[in-house]
Amino acid sequence: MTETGTLAESYTEMTELLLPNDTNNLGRALGGAVLHWMDIAGAIAGMRFSNTQVVTASMDHVDFISPIDLGEVAVVQAYVFNTGRTSVDVKVDVRAEDPREGEERKTTASFFTFVALDEEGTPTEVPDLECPTEEEAALREEAVEGRRRQFEDLVDRMEE
Which part of the chain is the HotDog ACOT-type domain (predicted)? Predict the structure, then answer.
């Protein structure tokens, strides 16, 4: 496939108001709800980039570094930062916003891999990734480096 796509074309941002059905007994977001939102945003980014259906192949390590509290807005951002022959790698970041105070904080991030499927459900080729702007190139480099660091940290923990 000689077709190309850009990081910007894949960019996706979703918002979710944290309501009681998605909270634990402390009034904070259930981890499973956050992972669900991340998977959806990642899939949308993958579909926008590949112009075809995608399915989740893997999700890297996830640390929940800050809670999302009842009534806050979860902002989930995703973009394609790398491609294989039939797969796309997507960085997904989540932050919490307090709409009353105007404050925000990072809550989690992870890296997903999706496989593109044709109409018969068979893996199909995806476009090559282009990053024509400095901003796109910087986002791609940040994601590549972040995934590399995360992998190295995992190896270090396994060796302990």
Answer: 8-120
3-state percent breakdown (helix, strand, coil) of the chain, nearest 5: 35, 40, 30
- In this prediction the pTM is 0.92
Tokens of 81: 């930062």
Distance CA 106, CA 63 (A): 11
Q: Where do the domains of the chain lie?
A: 4-159
Q: Quick count: other Cβ atoms within 10 Å of Cβ 73? A: 15
pLDDT tens sequence across 53-111 = 999 999 998 999 999 999 999 999 999 999 999 999 999 999 999 999 999 999 999 99
The answer to whether the CB of 18 falls within 8 A of the CB of 74 is yes
Cα 28 versus chain centre, distance: 21
State the alpha helices, DSSP H only, in the chain. Answer: 7-10, 31-50, 134-159
The CATH homologous superfamily for domain 4-159 is Hotdog Thioesterase (3.10.129.10)
Please state, in angstroms and rounded to a whole number, the distance separating the CA atoms of residues 38 and 109. 9
Planar angle of CA 17, 23, 27, nearest 5 degrees: 95
